[in-house]
Amino acid sequence: GVVGIGQDITGRIAQEREYSKLIDTANAPIFGVDTEGKVNVWNQCAMRLVGYSTEEVMGHSLVQEFITDDFKTAVQAVLDQALRGDETANFEFPLITKAGARIEVLLNATTRRDEHGNVIGVVGIGQDITGRIAQEREYSKLIDTANAPIFGVDTEGKVNVWNQCAMRLVGYSTEEVMGHSLVQEFITDDFKTAVQAVLDQALRGDETANFEFPLITKAGARIEVLLNATTRRDEHGNVIGVVGIGQ
């Protein structure tokens, strides 16, 4: 004879359906791939954003068919890491829409597991940051062409903004200053402590206006600058550096 041992999975199936519904109607593009990188989740927001229907993407390779050539390797690496259980947050990459446009996406890649804990794929929750990146590029262009010397440093005091006016004033090109310590390499010894204090204050959110200090030009001359030091923040409000507008 035969003995059958059953298990009631009604609750689990109902839970999975609710999970699928939440994903499909979420207000963010969500996609998933299996262990071979083939698309097996594609919600309505992803469909609206990229232009491909669920039927057009299911079973197709996400990386090979929908990622730009310059990002194929990087995106594949993120997926491979997630398949090993090493998840990635805030990874920026471009997707190609059905119309051929390039859109920028900020992605969180999460490992997907079955009820036994086995890895069965990756789920990516995205955010369309195309508009933000365009805005940042416009902001960078305005800074670069401004009629005042503008420089920026990161949280370690390394130069990461150096506009054309600063270049003309001090004589160093962007390539010569990027990644270098502003205070240690371009400020006179008698003002190193004071300028560092202004930067440290701005990194704490305490901005400074009309601070006078000298810069050393490439030719070795000393020029006096009147500075406004402004805290620089990312889209989440986290301090990422300081921007100085000089005169």
Explain what you see.
It is a single chain. With 247 residues, this protein is α+β, with helices and mostly antiparallel strands. The protein folds into two domains: 10-128, PAS domain (Beta-Lactamase), CATH 3.30.450.20; 145-246, Beta-Lactamase. 36% of the residues lie in helices and 32% in strands. It contains ten helices and ten strands. Strands 2-1-5-4-3 form a five-stranded antiparallel beta sheet, sandwiched between helices. The chain has a five-stranded antiparallel beta sheet with strand order 7-6-10-9-8, with helices on one face. Strand 1 (30-34) and strand 2 (39-42) form a beta hairpin. It is elongated, with a radius of gyration of 25 Å. It starts with 9 loop residues before the first helix and ends with a strand. The mean pLDDT is 85.
Secondary-structure topology with pairs:
Blueprint: H1 10-25, E1 30-34, E2 39-42, H2 44-50, H3 54-57, H4 62-66, H5 72-83, E3 88-96, E4 102-113, E5 119-128, H6 130-145, E6 150-154, E7 159-162, H7 164-170, H8 174-177, H9 182-186, H10 192-203, E8 208-216, E9 222-233, E10 239-246
Antiparallel strand pairs: 1-2, 1-5, 3-4, 4-5, 6-7, 6-10, 8-9, 9-10
Catalytic activity: ATP + protein L-histidine = ADP + protein N-phospho-L-histidine
Keywords: Kinase, Phosphoprotein, Receptor, Transferase
GO molecular function: protein histidine kinase activity
